[in-house]
Design a protein that fits this description.
Layout (H helix, E strand, L loop, with lengths): L8 H4 L6 E3 L4 H10 L9 E6 L2 E7 H5 L18 E2 L4 H11 L4 E4 L5 E5 L1 H19 L15 H28 L1 H6 L2 H4 L1 H23 L7 H31 L2 H31 L10 H22 L1
Parallel strand pairs: 1-2, 4-5
Antiparallel strand pairs: 2-3, 5-6
């Protein structure tokens, strides 16, 4: 097996599973399973083949519930959920979750049966992919086939530094934005004190929305982009209104300035809206382009949110001052 095959369905499949012909009876299949049970890695399903082509499947539970003389062709499921040999391991796990099946059959380009990705392997895939997504969210380039504990110092460095450099440039850009709007801060010094609050709200709302949307992308219940946007815009309206009222009241009782309080309230409301849109469109774009949506929920999205929230904040401030 070469490196390019690691993580592909063909490299994860085993053919040590029960197979049968469509004309075999339930009794024949059960006797075969009992005789060779020690040779099988999984016996959840019996795969029905016709000259190596997968034409049906029946679970062991279903097999016990039919009469012994019934042939498989009369009781098998003909529409079989399957993946191709070159499918990525994440596709295998997503299909298993979407179809609620314990094992996923694999076929080659000629639709010939290659083997089955068992439930144990699927659980391992889910664990690896979950770890990979968490690390990508933190800005660490990590392959699900790797083990972090075995990384060399050089690998640890190279897996982390790219997004940190991006974050550094994002911070410099944010500083440039603050410096560019220094006249607004000069006119109302109190605005500078609320910069951390505005940036935090943008990051918090964006992170929450991204997590929900990325989860939606892998859910068995599919939603259109329009449906997700409509739902999240309604949520953003409620969240933005609530946070705006809170920050207006707190800042007014603290500073006694209607102008500053109004700037903060509008900035929070606008920032929440913008963060929600970015949190949905960025992962959606990455997913459409064939990239891992988890990449878009990490440092890249954080930089975009931080810089844009500062721009929104100071543009609103200038319009008042």
């Amino acid at each position: 097996m070469n490196d390019t095959q690691v993580g592909l369905a063909m490299s994860l499949a085993t053919n040590a599973v029960p197979t049968a012909a469509s004309t075999d009876t339930a009794s024949d299949v059960l006797q075969n399973i009992q005789a060779f049970s020690g040779d099988f890695q999984a016996i959840d399903y019996i795969y029905v083949l016709d000259e190596r082509k997968l034409i049906g499947v029946i679970s062991l539970h279903e097999l016990f519930s039919v009469a012994p003389q019934i042939m498989l062709q009369d009781c098998m499921t003909r529409e079989v959920a399957q993946v191709h040999a070159q499918s990525d391991q994440e596709t295998v796990a997503q299909l298993a979750l979407a179809q609620n099946i314990k094992a996923v059959p694999v076929v080659n380009r000629d639709d010939e049966f290659v083997g089955v990705v068992t439930s144990d392997t699927i659980l391992q895939i889910l664990r690896d992919e979950h770890t990979e997504d968490i690390l990508k969210y933190a800005g660490i380039n990590f392959d699900a086939q790797d083990t972090l504990s075995e990384y060399t110092l050089t690998q640890h460095f190279t897996s982390r530094i790219p997004w940190l450099i991006l974050g550094l440039f994002g911070g410099i850009l944010a500083a440039w934005v603050v410096e560019s709007f220094s006249e607004a801060i000069t006119a109302e010094v109190a605005l500078a004190a609320f910069i951390p609050a505005i940036v935090y709200i943008a990051d918090a709302v964006g992170s929450q929305t991204q997590m929900v949307f990325v989860r939606t992308l892998t859910s068995k219940i599919r939603h259109t982009l329009r449906q997700v946007l409509q739902r999240e815009i309604l949520v953003a309206t409620a969240v933005g209104a609530c946070l705006s009222v809170i920050i207006w009241l707190l800042s007014f009782f603290w500073l006694g300035s209607v102008t500053v309080s109004s700037i903060l309230a509008l900035a929070v409301f606008a920032t929440v809206y913008f963060s929600v849109v970015v949190a949905i469109l960025l992962p959606w774009f990455f997913n459409k382009m064939g990239y891992d949506a988890a990449v878009a929920t990490g440092p890249l999205a954080t930089v975009i949110r931080d810089v844009s929230s500062l721009c929104i904040y100071f543009l609103i401030a200038l319009s008042f001052l």
